[in-house]
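Protein of interest.
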Amino acid sequence: MDFGKYIRNQRLKQGLTIRDIVEMSGDSLDKTTISRIERNERKLSLKAAYVFSELYDIDLKTMAKKAVGEDVKIKKTRPEPRKRGRKKGSGKKV
C-alpha cells in the first residue's frame, strides 16, 4: 500500500474529514497539502509527519518507514576513514 493511501485510511478509520485534520492541526497544515499528500502528489514534510503521527497515534519511526518505503536499507557500520589533502603529484604544472 502506498503512503497516501495509508494516511487516508488512517483518517477514514477515525471518521475524520480533511477539514477536521486542518482544524485539529491548529491550521499548521492546509486542506490542499493534506489532500495532495493523500494522493501522493506531494512528499511528506517533517511537519506533516509530526502532525499525522500525533493525530493518528502512529510512531514517527513507523511513519518514516511507510513514507520512505520498506526497500531502503540502512547500514550501521562506519565507513573507512578517508585521507585528506591532495594526492601527491596532482599540483604539477605542464
Notes: The radius of gyration is 21 Å. The mean pLDDT is 87. The CA atoms of residues 12 and 18 lie 9 Å apart.
